[in-house]
Design brief:
mainly beta, 5-stranded antiparallel beta sheet
Amino acid sequence: MANLDAARGLVPVKKLGNGYETAGFSTYKVASGHNQNLFNGQAVELKADGTIQRATDGGGNSAKIVGVAGGVQYVDSTGKPKWSNYWPAGTVTQGTVAAELKVYDDPDQLFIVQSDGASDQTAVGANAPMVGNANGSTTSGISSMELDHTGLTNGSDQLRVIDILDDPNNTAGSIHVKLIVRINMHAYTNLAGI
């Protein structure tokens, strides 16, 4: 049976190990006028000024992903409070006050992600880059980032495959298989600063 092609970026699912799962998030700042869409489910990183931007695909060792975007709140330029699934690129806030982006930033958080290839059990334990992290829907606010199947490696990279999602509608070895991953290049487990 073919898997449904329905990329949603990184969707929090559980924690590594058997600790209590809260799928909690922290609040980070997005600068007024920031010029990138920040979609729900998109991997994000800290800029040198302490605000958030989207993480780049295939970042290898240089990427220090701080977590996954989960929605934003801000006051628009007319003074109206906004709660949204995503940050629209170029949005200017009232008084240029930074917006608040919710980020799933626990280094032990696991996520469901769609593979852009026919990943199977041999992918478990491997690392892979993201592909399409800049992409998403401005209608739903949901990311369409996927795991780059062709980039699976035993070397360092952005995501670590932990398992294949156990679901009767998810067939390992078929294109668009859903995997469970952990952020491998996490800013809070990397010894170097931003």
